[in-house]
Design brief:
Elements: H1 29-34, E1 42-50, E2 53-58, E3 64-69, H2 75-85, H3 90-93, E4 109-116, E5 123-130, E6 135-140, E7 143-145, H4 147-156, E8 167-168, H5 173-178, H6 181-192, H7 195-316, H8 319-372, H9 380-425, H10 433-444, H11 446-457, E9 466-467, H12 470-473, E10 475-476, H13 482-488, H14 491-494, E11 497-499, H15 502-515, E12 522-524, E13 549-550, E14 555-556, H16 559-569, E15 575-576, H17 579-583, H18 585-592, E16 596-598, E17 602-608, E18 615-621, H19 634-701, H20 706-734, H21 738-796, H22 808-812, H23 816-819, H24 824-840, H25 846-908, E19 912-918, E20 929-935, E21 943-944, H26 952-967, E22 974-978, H27 986-1000, E23 1007-1012, E24 1026-1030, H28 1044-1055
Parallel strand pairs: 3-23, 3-24, 8-22, 11-12, 22-23
Antiparallel strand pairs: 1-2, 1-4, 4-5, 5-6, 6-7, 9-11, 10-14, 13-15, 16-17, 17-18, 19-20, 20-21
Length: about 1050
């Protein structure tokens, strides 16, 4: 059919000396709108010295553009021009990696100019490529600019030449089916989603990544915090014992401080008592002196009367009378002395008897009190025995506590090792590797696990061999090599069921996928076994490069499973090397030319360019194995569990011993306290009784025999009186005046009596003075003692000179000072007890306490950090929830729309297909993907579109229909598909062509480029289509000789019968 002149083809070959005979179509925005172009559509493509073209201009239409031409004429050159002219990367095209390779051979430079429709004024992008330096110069609307500015301008028009959903060149057609679900989702979001959808998705993935990091940080901090708490818990008892010992030492210090104060207080009270007695004795002395004063006055009065008489007698008596009188006086005085001595002895004896009676009464009372305490032996040996036993108990307790600490450490270490094993198997109680793998399968792929249980219950329904998911039946010989197997075999195949027969697989899929709605993967083994297929070259030839095995030799698997892996993934021909291989990797790639190799920690993929023959290699780090290293050492686990049981039993026995020791310790302490109190009281009573008895014995030994003394006194007085009588007789004989003598004798007798009474009172006064002198001396001694004790107490308590009261701070230390005993015996007893208790705490260190306190501060800081991280994690989860709502709901609607069109297209072809949003875990946003499932035969079930399950033509059909499903949703201004119909059978090609024409020529669709080297006959075309025929090559008709009218005329003549 004829095409409108405004879109008439003017693509032709020009030599360097030729010029175009036609002007290019005008590039106005009005013309673009009139032609139905959307924002960003291509109006014109001009190529100079580009690949196969000297100079060519292409004017595509606004809807479907079908570029037809023989192979090698330059159809794909137009695709390359679109990509490179819009700042695309050479990697998108899959041809040469240098832009200079796209310049026509023999030319030094080439250029591509693309005019894009824009409502505000068309955008003309020009790229000139220099071969010499492999560089490009850019222009926007004929003005020089940078590549970045061009990229920004292209991006504003929603053009994505790197997106396979928009731009699918010939070399990338096969890669579309190889795209993972994740890659397909991202490409779809960029192609037809709202601009913010992909941004929300990236934001979600970033949030989720940070959330995982925070979760890991929180988990690590929680684990570290728990370990720190456990370590502090183990040291807590030592710290408590340390502080308990410190309390005992503090109490000892307080007792030692209080003891001098108690000694001082005791001496002070004794001083006060002595002072009181001294004052009483002083008063008594005063009263005795006052009582003696009348006698002295009377004596003086008698002497005053006697003196004149004696004077008179002296005057009348002779010298001899005077002598006799003196003798008589002497005898009277002698009698008085004798009587005074008797009186003193009588008084002394009476006082002794009184003191004896008082002492006996005190001894009796004390003995009665001592008897009331009961007859008992000396408790000192018992107290010493109790102290020795207490020390022994404390040593045993310390030894048991040390053993308990060692057991706790052993238990923690055993628990740690057991937890490592349990971490590998996830759940306690799994006994072998198979159950561990099944549990992993159940956790990660619940649908697959459900299908596995159904298969085990219904295995008899299948005729051929059916194998459980590969991850369960593959046995890696060395767990260190599991990473190679998992890196080489995709996860979808590791969880896939393997069937020997096609009928069994369809029966299985009908049940689990259609009936039970389970998402499972299945594969079928090749009809001809490939499990023993030899490698392309012997392993011996590879050993010099560091290779030690092929992948197949690293694991065991059933025949059909191994056959499938050899057929699909060439495990028989992929070598595994070492660090030596990595060190000479360039030589390995260059000389061996193998497509895939493994070194110790990396995977290398090698490709050879179809155009430049260059070898391109890529490498990626191997990830640790997740499924094939699930091994459990049952013996080790059993030994650890037995060790834990033994430790628990020993700890229980130690706790029982500790409880017994605690009970015995309490009993001994109570007994010791009772004995100490008894010993103190009994000792005091015994000391008092002993002192009183010694005093009593001393007094009894000093007994005075009054009767003998009285008889002796009477005899002495009688003898003196006889002498007096003799003297008186002699005196009377010489006296002249008897009256004077009698009067003198009377007065003398009275005086003698008065003097006797006075001497008695003087003796009592003298005794009182002696007692007073003694009390005064005792007072002075006690005063000196008190001052010494006060000075000593002040030095111990660090008091300033002059202070005489107990320091206030000692009373404020938890009232401990005031609560201490107030007697020396009780203080001594408590001191001994506290020292004994303190000596029992051995093996304690200040460093342990410092470490405990430091770790306690660390724990507080970690708790605060953990709270902060937890709050941050909560905030991230809130952000994730908000971003998820903004992203997921529109995405589901978009996928539903794509699925609706995709399913309609497949139904129109009498096939079935569906598109859904797939995610193994709703919270893993980087694992979301678009899954395409198709079936081309009514007898089969829907299968996921993969590089190996469908044929090449089926993959091409599925790819084309998916792209057409995006056409009406399209946010991009144009799409390019290059030779996608090559692998289709005629029926599918015709159906797909009809769908493409119907969809791409619709009302609300954008520009579409469909490149093909051939077309079927009698296809249906639409008026909105633009057909661009490519005639290029050295043997083509020169442009100036070409006539379209003549060509059409000849074609019509051939159709006339």
């Amino acid at each position: 059919m004829d095409l409108p002149q405004k879109r008439k083809r003017i693509s032709y070959e020009l030599t360097n000396s030729q010029t175009s005979s036609r002007e290019a179509a005008p590039s106005s925005s009005t013309n673009g709108q009139a032609g139905g172009f959307v924002e960003g559509s291509i109006l014109r493509i001009t190529m100079r010295n580009f690949l196969t073209y000297d100079h060519s201009e292409v004017f595509p239409g606004p809807k479907l553009n079908m570029i037809v031409g023989a192979n090698g004429t330059g159809k794909s050159s137009i695709v390359c021009a679109i990509c490179l002219g819009l700042a695309g990367k050479t990697a998108v095209l899959g041809r040469g990696d240098k832009v200079g390779l796209y310049v026509k051979r023999g030319c030094s430079k080439g250029s591509v100019e693309i005019e894009l429709y824009r409502a505000s004024g068309n955008l003309i992008i020009t790229r000139e490529i220099q071969v010499e330096n492999n560089q490009s110069t850019w222009m926007l609307n004929k003005k020089h600019t940078s590549q970045k500015a061009v990229e920004e301008a292209v991006k504003e028009l929603h053009i994505q030449v790197g997106n396979l959903c928009q731009f699918l060149p010939q070399e990338k057609v096969g890669e579309f089916a190889k795209m993972s679900k994740i890659e397909l989702l991202e490409a779809t979001e960029k192609s037809v989603g709202p601009p913010e959808m992909y941004e929300f998705h990236c934001e979600l993935k970033t949030f989720r990544s940070k959330e995982r990091d925070l979760e890991n940080v929180c988990k690590e901090k929680a684990n570290f915090l728990e370990k720190a708490r456990q370590r502090n818990e183990r040291n807590k008892l030592d710290v408590e014992r340390y502080y308990m010992k410190k309390r005992h030492l503090d109490r000892i210090q307080m007792l030692e401080k209080k003891k001098p104060w108690v000694e001082y207080e005791t001496a002070r009270k004794e001083l006060e008592g002595v002072k009181k007695e001294r004052e009483e004795m002083k008063k008594k002395l005063k009263s005795l002196k006052e009582a003696q004063e009348p006698l002295l006055r009377k004596i003086r009065s008698v002497e005053s009367q006697l003196q004149p008489i004696e004077q008179q007698m002296k005057e009348d008596a002779t010298q001899k009378c005077k002598q006799k009188h003196d003798q008589l006086e002497y005898r009277n005085k002698e009698v008085d002395d004798i009587r005074q001595d008797l009186s003193l002895k009588q008084t002394e004896e009476a006082d002794r008897q009184k003191r004896i009676g008082h002492t006996q009464l005190m001894i009796k009372d004390l003995q009665k009190e001592l008897q009331n305490m009961g007859s008992m032996e000396d408790v000192t040996p018992q107290i010493e025995a109790v102290n020795a036993e207490l020390r022994k108990i404390q040593e045993e307790k310390a030894k048991l506590e040390g053993e308990m600490s060692d057991l706790r450490r052993d238990k923690d270490e055993a628990f740690g090792e057991l937890n490592l094993i349990n971490d590998r198997i996830f759940i306690f109680g799994l006994d072998d590797m198979m159950k561990v793998k099944e549990d992993k399968l159940r956790t990660r792929f619940r649908d697959t696990y459900t299908a596995l249980k159904w298969l085990r219950d219904n295995r008899d329904r299948f005729e051929g061999n059916v194998y459980e998911p590969m991850m369960l039946v593959i046995n890696v010989r060395d767990s260190r090599h599991a990473k190679y197997i998992e890196s080489h075999i995709p996860l979808n195949d590791l969880r896939a069921f393997v069937f020997q027969r096609q009928e069994d697989m369809e029966k299985f899929m009908t049940e689990v996928r259609d009936t039970q709605r389970l998402r499972v993967n299945t594969v079928i083994a090749p009809e001809e076994s490939c499990s023993r297929r030899p490698p392309s070259r012997p392993l011996e030839t590879l050993k010099p490069y560091g290779f030690f095995s092929y992948l197949r030799e690293l694991f065991d698997a059933p025949e059909e499973v191994m056959s499938y892996l050899c057929y699909q993934y060439k495990v028989n021909d992929v070598p595994v090397g070492t660090e030596k291989t990595k060190s000479m990797i360039e030589m390995v790639i260059r000389e061996l030319q193998m497509r895939m190799i493994y070194t110790a920690e990396e995977k290398y993929t090698v490709k050879k360019s179809n155009y430049s023959s260059n070898v391109v290699s890529s490498n990626s780090a191997l990830r640790p194995s997740q499924f094939l290293t699930m091994t459990v050492d049952a013996d080790e686990r059993r030994q650890l569990e037995e060790q834990l049981r033994s430790i628990d039993q020993r700890m229980a026995a130690i706790r029982e011993q500790q409880a017994k020791l605690d009970r015995r310790d309490n009993e001994l302490r109570a007994n010791k306290k009772k004995l100490s109190e008894l010993k103190g009281k009994k000792r005091q009573l015994e000391q008092k009784i002993s002192t009183k008895q010694d005093s009593l014995r001393q007094m009894e030994q000093n007994e005075i025999n009054l009767q003998a003394i009285e008889e002796e006194t009477n005899a002495k007085i009688a003898a003196v009186n006889n002498k007096k009588v003799a003297i008186m007789e002699e005196y009377l004989g010489h006296m002249q005046k008897v009256y004077l003598a009698l009067q003198s004798a009377g007065l003398s007798a009275e005086k003698t009596k008065l003097e006797t009474d006075c001497r008695d009172s003087s003796a009592e006064l003298k005794r009182a003075e002696v007692v007073y002198t003694k009390l005064d001396q005792v007072k002075n001694n006690l005063l000196t003692t008190c001052k010494t004790l006060m000075r000593r107490a002040s030095e111990i308590c660090n008091m300033t000179p002059g202070e005489t009261a107990v320091p206030e701070e000692l009373h404020q230390v938890s009232s401990a000072f005031s609560q201490l005993p107030d007697t020396l015996d009780e203080i001594d007893a408590m001191l001994n007890e506290e020292k004994t208790r303190a000596e029992c705490f051995t093996g304690l260190s200040d460093a342990v306490v410092e470490e405990y306190n430091r770790r306690e501060r660390e724990i507080q800081n970690m708790e605060k950090e953990l709270d902060d991280k937890t709050n941050a994690l909560t905030t991230y989860r809130q952000n994730i929830a908000e971003a998820k709502e903004r992203w997921l709901n529109p995405l589901k609607q978009l996928v539903d729309q794509i699925n609706e069109r995709f399913s309609d297209f497949f139904r129109s072809m009498q096939c079935a297909g569906e598109v859904d949003l797939h995610s193994e875990n709703e919270e893993e946003y980087d694992k979301y993907g678009i899954r395409i499932r198709v079936k081309f035969r009514s007898s089969t079930q829907l299968h996921e579109l993969t590089p190996h399950h469908q044929s090449g033509g089926e993959r091409s059909v599925s790819t084309m229909l998916y792209l057409m499903s995006l056409q009406e949703l399209n946010r991009c201004p144009f799409r390019v598909v290059d030779e996608i119909n090559q692998g289709m059978d005629p029926v599918n090609e015709r159906r797909v062509f009809d769908i493409v024409v119907r969809t791409a020529c619709g009302v609300n669709t954008s520009q579409y480029f469909f490149i093909t080297p051939k077309l079927l006959q009698n296809l249906k075309y639409a008026e909105q289509m633009t057909i661009l025929c490519v005639h290029n090559g050295p043997y083509m008709l020169p442009p100036h000789k070409w006539s379209e009218k003549a060509f059409i005329r000849r074609a019509k003549r051939r159709q006339i019968p």
